[in-house]
What does this fold into?
Amino acid sequence: MSKEDNLNENWKKDFPIKKQESTQVSRRDFAKFLTFVSGGLMVGSGFVTAKAYLLPKEEVMGEHFICNKEEVPVGGTRGFVIEGSAIPYILIHLESGDFRAYEQKCTHLSCSVFYKPGTGIIHCPCHEGSFDAMTGDVIAGPPPRALPQLEVFFKDAGVYVKAISENKNS
It folds into this structure.
């Protein structure tokens, strides 16, 4: 017996289904399968939507130290996560000398965004979304809303963030 014949025989032992039986899937069985999978996807999407509306994300409370001013060069960034949260943020030291802090998740499909130094643009590579680094507003692409922003302020040489107060006019 050749090696090829031996492989064919072993394969038949491992998978004892005849070819004619494997292709006998009726339309009804296929439709049941599609209905089952579609229903599962619908229920899963419903749970995700319900979770988003019933359990909204917690707001940033208090002031949080991020780093010292000299640790982020002009045009540079620093990623951070606030204690007690799992949301990633990005601190940007703009070429104008201003500091800005935003959520590092695109508002379209939560892809990670990054700052393009010298352009004033925060870019999402997933679907080519762009945000204004000064305001967080959408410039281009599919994102439906601006990036959530934190207020940046300084104490001595330290860079701190807190939630933007509602009465602030920008």
Helices lie at 3-14, 19-22, 27-54. The CA atoms of residues 68 and 158 lie 4 Å apart. The radius of gyration is 26 Å.
